[in-house]
Amino acid sequence: MVYAIVRAGGRQEKVEVGTVLTVDRQKAGEDGKLTFAPVLLVDGEKVTHAAADLAKISVTAELIEDTRGKKIIIQKFKNKTGYRKRQGHRQELSRVRVTAIG
């Protein structure tokens, strides 16, 4: 069983070949491929976490679609002053499928 922990969009995700994950919007190359930097690699019984060894390894993924997240509402209120503020936000996201670890 081979899997890797990758840094993707400010978070760390556990991925295997074929894993579909949602990350912050990423710009893909012309061929629709992305690469992620691994933080840890588990290959059967062997665990690799040294920076020098991980520099030789890359995790490749293909872009499935660009989408937007669920809308969240930010509300601010201060008592007795009449101050109210309401703001909405939808995060830009990308869905990717991991194609290779190595």
UniProtKB/TrEMBL annotation:
InterPro entries noted in UniProt: bL21-like, bL21-like_sf, Ribosomal_bL21, Ribosomal_bL21_CS
One MF term in the entry's GO annotations: rRNA binding
One BP term from GO: translation
Pfam entry (one): Ribosomal_L21p
Keywords: Ribonucleoprotein, Ribosomal protein, RNA-binding, rRNA-binding
GO cellular component, one term: ribosome
The keyword RNA-binding is assigned to this record: yes
Family to which the UniProt record says this protein belongs: Belongs to the bacterial ribosomal protein bL21 family.
Complex and partners: Part of the 50S ribosomal subunit. Contacts protein L20.
Function: This protein binds to 23S rRNA in the presence of protein L20.
NCBIfam families assigned to the protein according to its UniProt record, in alphabetical order: L21 (TIGR00061)
PANTHER family per the UniProt record, alphabetical: 50S RIBOSOMAL PROTEIN L21, LARGE RIBOSOMAL SUBUNIT PROTEIN BL21M
Protein name: Large ribosomal subunit protein bL21
Species annotation: Amnibacterium setariae
Gene name per UniProt: rplU
